[in-house]
């Protein structure tokens, strides 16, 4: 590690002011940032902790929408997002208890790790990412591996998830980290089905539009039988080749549809 200043504001306004200073960086749950600091992959001169800002925390359901504060931990989502069971189940299977009690929804989405679970949930749900300055549709928010539409110093204050008629998230997890080697989130709404895939593509989370078209016409596992994605553009590493990941997408999509149905 190295020396840096640390601030722990209790209001959103104070956090925004602190982040407006040179080389300041927001700290959510720290599950990604702290290891990055230790390896000197990130070297901000100041960390601004969001952990004491109560207005960023909480889970509410109203008018068919589940709203999750950006500072809400995975453990809280798992316990309190009963109005959206698939999202609660997703949160309950992130990492281990230590990670779930520290990591936050806003931190996960701001980091946009290519194997993280929440990006798939947000994209498949047609979620809206709310910041201190604006609202961003999920389709516009994710812009590639570790890249989002957030501006410098912008803070995720909440995420609005429209609650689907049916949904399920299935991931084939890397056993040590419990990140998704491949994860597929399927959500059925009155106007169609969305399918989002994480852990597979070199470009990060994405929607599988061909599967969405088939499932919107027939929401059954058989509807995506025979569909496949090319191995080109898929991540390949010691855990699995691009071809293996491409195959898993089809398998997990069928399992997600069966689980949702």
UniProtKB/TrEMBL annotation:
PROSITE patterns: FAD_PCMH. The keyword Flavoprotein applies. Residues 1-166 form the FAD-binding PCMH-type domain. Its EC number is 1.2.99.2. Keywords: FAD, Flavoprotein, Oxidoreductase. SMART domains: CO_deh_flav_C. The keyword Flavoprotein applies. GO terms for molecular function: FAD binding; oxidoreductase activity. It comes from the Bacteria. It is an enzyme of class 1 (oxidoreductase). PANTHER family: XANTHINE DEHYDROGENASE SUBUNIT C-RELATED. This is Carbon monoxide dehydrogenase medium chain. The lineage of its organism: Bacteria, Pseudomonadati, Pseudomonadota, Alphaproteobacteria, Rhodobacterales.
């Amino acid at each position: 590690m190295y020396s840096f200043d640390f601030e722990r504001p209790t209001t959103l306004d104070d956090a925004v002011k602190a982040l407006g200073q040179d080389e300041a960086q927001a700290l959510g749950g720290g599950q990604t940032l702290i290891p990055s600091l230790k390896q000197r992959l990130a070297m901000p001169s100041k960390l601004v902790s969001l952990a004491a800002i109560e207005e960023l925390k909480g889970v509410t359901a109203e008018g068919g929408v589940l709203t999750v504060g950006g500072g809400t931990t995975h453990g809280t989502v798992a316990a309190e997002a009963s109005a959206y069971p698939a999202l609660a189940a997703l949160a309950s299977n992130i990492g281990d208890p230590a990670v779930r009690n520290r990591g936050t929804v806003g931190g996960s989405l701001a980091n946009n790790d290519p194997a993280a679970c929440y990006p798939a949930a947000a994209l498949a749900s047609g979620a809206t990412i709310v910041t201190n300055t604006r609202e961003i549709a999920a389709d516009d928010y994710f812009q590639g591996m570790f890249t989002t539409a957030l501006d410098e110093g912008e803070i995720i204050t909440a995420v609005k998830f429209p609650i689907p008629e049916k949904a399920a998230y299935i991931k084939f997890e890397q056993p040590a980290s419990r990140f998704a080697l491949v994860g597929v989130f399927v959500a059925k709404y009155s106007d169609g089905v969305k399918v989002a895939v994480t852990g597979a593509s070199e470009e990060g989370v994405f929607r599988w539009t061909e599967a969405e078209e088939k499932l919107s016409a027939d929401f059954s596992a058989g509807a995506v039988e025979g569909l496949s994605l090319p191995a080109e553009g898929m991540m390949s590493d010691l855990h699995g080749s691009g071809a293996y990941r491409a195959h898993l997408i089809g398998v997990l999509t069928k399992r997600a549809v069966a689980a949702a149905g």
